Amino acid sequence: MKAPARCNDILAGYAAAATPELIARYEAVDCRTLYAAVLDLLPEMPVRVADIGAGTGRDAAWFARQGHQVLAVEPVRELREAGMALHRASDVAWLDDALPALERTQRRGPFGLVTLCGVWQHIDDAARGVATTALGRMVADGGLLVLSLRHGPGAPGRPVFPISPRYTVEAAVRSGFAPLREVEVGSLQPGNRAAEVRWTWLALRKAA
Q1: How big is the CA angle at 50 (ends 193 and 95), to the nearest 5 degrees?
Q2: What is the pLDDT of residue 1?
Q3: Positive or negative CA dihedral for 138, 144, 48, 50?
Q4: How many other C-beta atoms are found inside a 10 Å radius of the C-beta of residue 4?
Q5: What are the residues facing 73 on neighbouring strands?
Q6: Which residue, 6, 101, 128, 112, is CA-closest to 49?
Q7: Within a 10 A sphere around the Cβ of 96, how many other Cβ atoms?
Q8: What is the pLDDT along the chain (208 residues), one digit of tens a residue?
């Protein structure tokens, strides 16, 4: 499934930026620190996980080490291939699929946990509406949806759209989710902190 035309430039930006330096910087982030705002809500028993916009597979591999069955969904070939090489020992399946429709991912569902870490800012409100409907279809009843929403400037070649946490939650509620948590935190990366980038973490439960 190809991304919409308006997303193509962003995906191309990630492909161009997929240098060894960027990949190393992604991989250096500690997942427990990254997910600290929602860590206690993550499932302890093994579930099926879909990591949307998996990048280099850092988070997907972390979930797999906890015993989860993980699908890493990444539309950028350069990042996907880097992740497959870096985490070849991990029990992670990879899929080339893209927001907003996530048609291939929907066919692999349902999932007990779906994560979108640092990707929601790259699609506009119209695409978010389509994506929220798709997420409502792929998260299992009683399953958990976790999103991190970026506020602040994007990196060169990877533009971002403004995000309203309130509207994001309202759209998710219309797709069958109940909000569990909303926490705003600073960025872990020094460059982003200098640019005053902040993140809102959302956790929502799909109605059983």
Answers
A1: 100
A2: 41
A3: positive
A4: 15
A5: 52, 95
A6: 112
A7: 13
A8: 444 445 677 788 788 878 898 899 889 999 999 999 999 999 999 999 999 999 999 999 999 999 999 999 999 999 999 999 999 888 899 999 999 999 999 999 999 999 999 999 999 999 999 999 999 999 999 999 999 999 987 777 778 899 999 999 999 999 999 999 999 998 777 666 666 789 999 999 999 8
Judged by phi (left if over 0) then psi (alpha if -120 to 50, else beta), residue 102 lies in: left
Running DSSP on this structure, what letter comes out for residue 184?
E
Q: C-alpha 9: how far from its chain's center? A: 19
d(CA 16, CA 165): 30
Q: Could you tell me the domains of the chain?
A: 5-206 (3.40.50.150)
Place of tokens 């099926």: 48
Tokens 């872990």, residue located: 188
3-state secondary structure of 107: helix
Q: What pTM did the predictor assign? A: 0.92
DSSP per position, 110-165: -EEEEEEES-GGGS-HHHHHHHHHHHHHHEEEEEEEEEEEEESPPBTTB------H
- Residue 147 CA to residue 127 CA, distance in Å, equals 15
